[in-house]
Design a protein that fits this description.
By secondary structure, the chain is α+β, with helices and mostly antiparallel strands. The protein is built from 11 helices and 5 strands; from the N terminus they run H-H-H-H-H-H-H-H-E-H-E-E-H-E-E-H. Strands 1-2-3-5-4 form a 5-stranded mixed sheet. Helix 4 packs across helix 5.
């Protein structure tokens, strides 16, 4: 099935009807673009001017949908109009066809038409002057330029402004899209960071609470229950304090909140003492110099999570925490007896290993966790250079 011709734009219909009515009015009152004695008016019949007028008005209906065809047919109609006494409305509508062909036509046509009309204007100026040897020949060039080159140049300028506006709008939309993507990535990264911080700060205390409460319920010993309740209370208080600090960070506009202290490697001794109070046998060995703050926080959290996992899953035995600085890398190693003990256990979700690996990756380091003979080993290598730490 053949494609149907596109319907003309309503503005094009108005232009065509207006041009046709204007031309009929000029013809009705006897106003023509040339006098009856003009030698170019080969057809002197009064009705002859109506044929180019009607054809040009019909071309106006295609000025937006088929601009190239409209210009070609309009050019033929203009030549026919030159052979008659002429109608000013036909000439005006032809200039609009030139303008529309540049504005709505293909990019190639938009580039060629101004050059072609410019060349026609130059020829229309030079040839009459050279042939007639009179300055009045310049008027022909001026009229030719007004009818051909001027509308073409105007269409080219308007098209450039329109294309520039479209390009700027697309660039603004792309910028907004990139900004939204950056915002989404920033929100996702911040949520992941908060999830890691929440897990690392609270999981250790809740694991101790779960294990000791299970022990208190399973053993019918008042002294054991009392000791377990003391550990439970201590971890509950510390866990609530950590939660308050985290909530204070998240709440906006809270001027009365306390500043949250960032954990440092100097706090590992207190962390180990707390783990010992929860029942772990730990040996701490550190040998390192000055460590950048991001690396220091990551190492602290990795040790903290490793001790939490040892409390939840390891068999009774010695847990070893070793921090050593080699060249520009801080090595963190935590080992614990491999396998589940016979005592109470706390459930795990696997989020701790994911969080530790994310912390190491963000610093450009590596983390490995798995069985190593009779031990479960967590090994992290954290670069100390500024580029990696950032």
């Amino acid at each position: 099935m053949a494609d149907r011709l596109p319907r003309p734009h309503r503005d094009d219909v108005r232009i065509a009807v207006g041009g046709l009515l204007g031309g009929l009015f000029l013809w009705g009152v006897g106003l023509c673009s040339r006098g009856p004695d003009d030698p170019m008016a080969l057809v002197d019949a009064g009705w002859a001017v109506l044929v180019p007028l009607v054809i040009t008005a019909g071309c106006e209906l295609m000025r937006r949908t088929r601009p190239r065809t409209a210009l070609l047919v309009g050019t033929v109609a203009l030549v026919a109009d030159l052979l008659t006494r002429g109608n000013l409305a036909t000439i005006v509508m032809f200039t609009d066809l030139v303008y529309a062909a540049v504005l709505y036509g293909s990019p190639g046509a938009a580039r060629r038409i101004p050059w072609i009309t410019g060349l026609i204007t130059v020829i229309g100026t030079v040839w009459p002057v050279a042939a007639w040897r009179k300055p009045e020949g310049l008027l022909i060039g001026a009229v030719t330029g007004l009818v051909t080159f001027t509308p073409a140049a105007t269409g080219w300028i308007v098209r450039n402004h329109r294309d520039t506006a479209v390009a700027e709008r697309l660039r603004a939309e792309q910028t907004a899209l990139l900004a939204e993507m950056d915002r989404t990535q920033a929100v996702t990264a911040e949520r992941a960071r908060m999830a890691r911080e929440l897990h690392d700060m609270v999981a250790n205390h809740l694991s101790a609470i779960a294990i000791h409460s299970t022990a208190a319920l399973s053993l019918d010993d008042p002294r054991t229950s009392k000791d377990a309740l003391a550990v439970i209370r201590e971890n509950s208080v510390e866990g609530l304090a950590e939660m308050r600090r985290l909530i204070g960070i998240l709440r906006e506009g809270g001027n009365d909140r306390e500043p949250a202290a960032v954990p440092t490697l100097d706090g590992l001794a207190a962390l180990v003492e707390g783990a010992r109070a929860n029942g772990l046998d730990i040996r701490l060995d550190t040998d390192h110099g000055r460590v950048p703050a991001p690396v220091e926080l990551a190492a602290y959290r990795i040790v903290q999570e490793s001790l939490t996992n040892a409390l939840k899953h390891a068999r009774p035995g010695r847990v070893t925490v070793t921090l050593a600085q080699r060249d520009d890398v801080l090595d963190v190693r935590v080992t614990s007896p491999y396998g589940h003990g016979d005592g109470p256990r706390a459930p795990g979700s696997g989020a701790g290993l994911v969080g530790m690996r994310e912390r190491a990756t963000l610093l450009g380091g590596t983390l490995a966790a798995g069985p190593d003979g009779a031990l479960w080993a967590v090994r992290a290598a954290l670069p100390l250079t500024e580029g990696a730490a950032e």
